[in-house]
Specification:
By secondary structure, this protein is an alpha+beta fold. It contains six helices and five strands, in the order ααββαβββααα.
Length: 151
């Protein structure tokens, strides 16, 4: 004799259901002043470090609500490979001193573009030609949002 058990409305564990549902939206209470203050401190540390290392054209972009990978982006230009590598190394040291442990760095071995993923803030260090080529300010800047649509 086969006994049928009642099935749950949706199969799977609560964890699997949460993963399938995707990231949940933060409430206004969760995106409070403390989070903004922490982001501001982190951004200030990043920009001060880059300025101390003689980075040029340092720009910060607010990505909140526009990108899922970070809340802010900092873009700066360095003249030579050695300068860009030093900026990345100094920045990594300062971020670790601030308590960040998961810092990912791509391209630090002498390239035209170094990416530093500091979690909520992503830092791009470019040589001038690469910065012009990739034009991240145009892609992520507010001017893009204000541009008239087709038609």
């Amino acid at each position: 004799m086969i006994t049928k058990l009642p099935m749950a409305a949706t199969p799977g564990t609560p964890r699997k259901k949460a993963v399938a549902a995707g990231p949940r939206k933060k409430t206004a209470a969760e995106t409070d002043r403390g989070t903004t203050e922490r982001l501001n401190r982190l951004q200030t540390l990043i920009m001060d470090s880059l300025d101390a290392d003689k980075a040029e054209q340092i720009v910060a972009l607010d990505l909140a609500g526009r990108a899922s990978f970070a809340d802010r982006m900092v873009i700066a230009t360095g003249i030579a490979d050695r300068q860009i590598a030093a900026m990345a190394q100094h920045l990594e040291e300062k971020l670790r001193e601030m308590g960040l442990t998961r810092i990912e760095i791509e391209g630090a071995g002498g390239s035209d573009w170094v990416l530093i993923d500091a979690g909520d803030i992503v830092v791009h260090l470019f040589k001038p030609e690469a910065r012009e080529l990739y034009a991240l300010e145009r892609m992520w800047g507010t001017e893009f949002d204000d541009a008239p649509g087709p038609g």
